[in-house]
Amino acid sequence: MTAAQSPRRCHIIGAPVQSGAAQPGCLMGPAAFRTAGLPDALRELGWEVTDQEDLALPALPPVTHANPALKNLAQMIAWTEALSKAAHEAAKNCDRPIFIGGDHSMAAGTVSGIARHAAEVDRPLFILWLDAHPDLHTLNSTTSGNLHGTPVAYFTGQPGFEQFPALKAAVDPNNICMMGIRSVDPAERQRIADLGLTVHDMRAIDEHGIVRPLTAFLNKVRAAGGLLHVSLDVDFLDPSIAPAVGTTVPGGATFREAHLIMEMLHDSDLVTSLDLVELNPFLDERGRTAKLMTDLTASLFGRSVLDRMTRSYA
User: How many helices (H) and strands (E) does the chain have?
Assistant: First the structure.
């Protein structure tokens, strides 16, 4: 950055959401990211960082639904509305907002708000979904009732979300790339086929690696002049390196695979917004997951391997 250039601006917005998950603790996620030094790590990389603090909800009356399994429906509807508004404003006012959570139900709000902004600036929105799960249930198809399994169905405009805020702009399923998937319910498997989603599960990554599929997706984003939102779930990572998540699934991304993805995203300079979700500090070991997620974010923002401190968890 030359003296004539202004630093790029990043807004951090906390979403202490745990109403979508079965295991309590994600509401502490935003505080854990701050304690792990996320804002300062980005400032050290030359970004102008504004911490917008955490969003909050008022007390809410319950909302009923024909599916009796649903849990905390009123809270998810309210969080979706609040986060959609906040994401829309942040996308207009900074170069790269980060939404720190909070369980993955928050993506219903963050992505819908970013999609509204993308439509207003007449650019297609692309989503890189880094997760063990596709989160493609509707309110009718979920049997667990845990609403962190529904955001992709909502923001792609699938039926069954009539009680939710009406989408200003739905995300085109053709613009979504999922990586790291390894836990898919039958209803979600059918929806993946129906929508034609691009999914690289862990077997595909084991067989072909990260570079080729991610490069192809980034080339698609660049060719379309698109905005790119990255949604990074802790359970994308193998639980041996990231234990602080209530939905652990063995066989996730390794430390090196995850950093390679972040470094490639930085090199592309295409990322315009970011979710960091499902961090449950109650399940962590001496903050190791919060620190790893912070390090991965720093890699996306430009930290190189030679800049990274070696961490000890002994």
Answer: 10, 8
